[in-house]
What does this fold into?
Amino acid sequence: MTPELLSLSNAPGMFVAVMLVKILAVFGVVMLMIAYATWVERKLIGHMQTRLGPTMTGPCGLLQPIADGLKLFFKEDIIPAQASKLSFVLAPMMMVVPALVTVAIIPFGRDITLLGYIIPMQIADLNVGVLFILAMAGLGVYGVVLAGWSSNSKYALLGGIRSTAQVISYELAAGMVIVAIFMLSGTLSMRGLVEAQQGPLWGITSLPAWIHNWYIFSQPLAFGIFVICSLAEINRTPFDLPEAETELVSGFATEYSSMKYALFFMAEYANMIVLSAVISTLFLGGWDGPFWGALNLFIKVVGFMMFFMWIRATWPRVRYDQLMFLGWKIFIPLAMLNIVVTALLILL
Amino acid sequence: MFKEFAQGLWITFKHLSPKYRTTVEYPKQRLQPSERFRGLHRLVLQHDREKCVGCYLCPTVCPAKCITVETAENDKGEKYPKVYKIDLLRCIFCGYCVEACPVEAIEMTGNYELANYKREDFEFTKERLLK
It folds into this structure.
């Protein structure tokens, strides 16, 4: 019997069990990565600034994320008297959930065959995968805007408004830049994208077997623009204007305390992980690489996250007008040019 | 522009190496203060009693007015400080008392760990200063 794709119709019990295992595994890994991303960030930036980072909690400060979590958990949860209660409570959740939901469509390995069924190493294979990512990224911003608006504080409001403007400008460029990718792959599904990147690079066969035609080689400009736009979308330095400490106290998170504040932090790191995974899948062949499937993806994601931290340790924040200039006058025209050039090359 | 970006990134990358590390992990690792460091005061002992002759020059010169001296005469007819107190909460560690002393009876040590829990504990009496 040839193995068939496991689905709800041919083996409902097994499908649900496998799904639960996959969801728990992915959720667990992402949560652990979020916790230890904070540790890595503090250590890495510390050493880059000739400091040490956390050292006192456990060996090398390894228990720091746990200590931070406990501390924030036991802090008083303050809701400002003039705040809009419902949206104030809702905002942090609206940031975390879209970030975590996006992980569901990242493929993290080759299909495995178990008991005569093919099990895809991906929680859900949406045929509109990338569209879903863009949608969720857009939805995550509502959390920031809502947090800024409902806090009833001028700094929070400014942070929220900056975030809207920033995300609108950069989502456009990011969206346009990946159009070129779809033109090459002919599919929006993440699984399809990974499969499309597995041919030999430029038809050269003498390269090591694991170097495939990842889209970073055919679309370097798109890769660069997408990475920068991702930085802007997840509010990381040098585009961290919504929470610019020097001007806006803590931006949209000013009025938040306790676990709600922790949720904002989790959302920031979850977004970072998800976007690293998305960039890896779109441009670096996803789980494709020299090692075992999920490990390749893990290495790529960690690499991107460290690069983002490195950038944070190095560059100052851009000015607001520079941000808008970069988004509207440089990236969008470049993205359009990229589409045109790619289209011409495909036609020829 | 890209060259400058790369230069910046290279600088931060270089600083990852341990030779740039400047942090002293304080409670585990302590630096030796210099000879001339002005820390906690000490009254110098000579034979069985303090060297101080009770001339009142140190409370006079003290800009923070933190030294209290009361003198008396012992059975040999020598003047000595019956009370000698330094209020460390007022002291600014300027070292003028050390400079003013004609008999070099007061000096400053390298002790800089002077935190305490109670206000009274910052009042250093003669007995504590002689230690």
Q: What stands out?
A: The interface with chain B takes residues 44, 47-52, 55, 310-311, 313-315 of chain A (CB under 8 Å).
